[in-house]
Design brief:
Number of helices: 2
Strand order of the largest sheet: 2-3-4-5-6
Distance between the termini: 40 Å
Largest sheet: 5 strands, antiparallel
Shape: globular
Number of strands: 7
Amino acid sequence: MKRNLHFMILLIVGLINACGENYTHEQKEYIASIEKQRQEKDDYMKNDPNSPFNFKGKVEFHPLKYFDVDPNLVFTSKLFEYPNIDTISVFGTKGEERKAVRYGFVNFDYQKKSYRLNVYKGFTKNGEEYFSIWFTDLTTNEQSYGVGRYLDFELDADKDFLYTIDFNLAYNPYCAYSADYTCAIPTKEDYVDLKIEAGEKKYH
């Protein structure tokens, strides 16, 4: 019995190691860098006075939850500006109406299908512009946060610039941790018909 159990343990460990060996040296370095970023974010969330766990009243902290890092869910795309850049209404999680500029989109191919992500331009309270991607997918409200997840986006002046779309960096807005915050709700056009098992999971 013990011999059989020992054999099964060795078999499982061997399978895990075999899976890990499918990654190149560069991919393993990439995975390690993402895991390091996650550790640093946990430290910020737990200890920084400006984090959503501390800034508007103390919220109990436990480490953020993530899907395993998947190097296959990293893509590149140009930014395709919409010919008519419209200002649209989106709503926050407290029901307030917001304005956002649907600026353009990026696209990616995965498992022989093509997908599109809208890029939005918004403005801070100080009037500074910023760009962002927000989306829902087949994990939303199941494994990942029910409102949706975000990806930061930094605009480059070069029209031919190739942006990196890294779903391992998909994160929850602050309203995922505390009801004191409100966040923009992705629209129906921001839904991706794909199970994106990368990035941050539900917190609660």
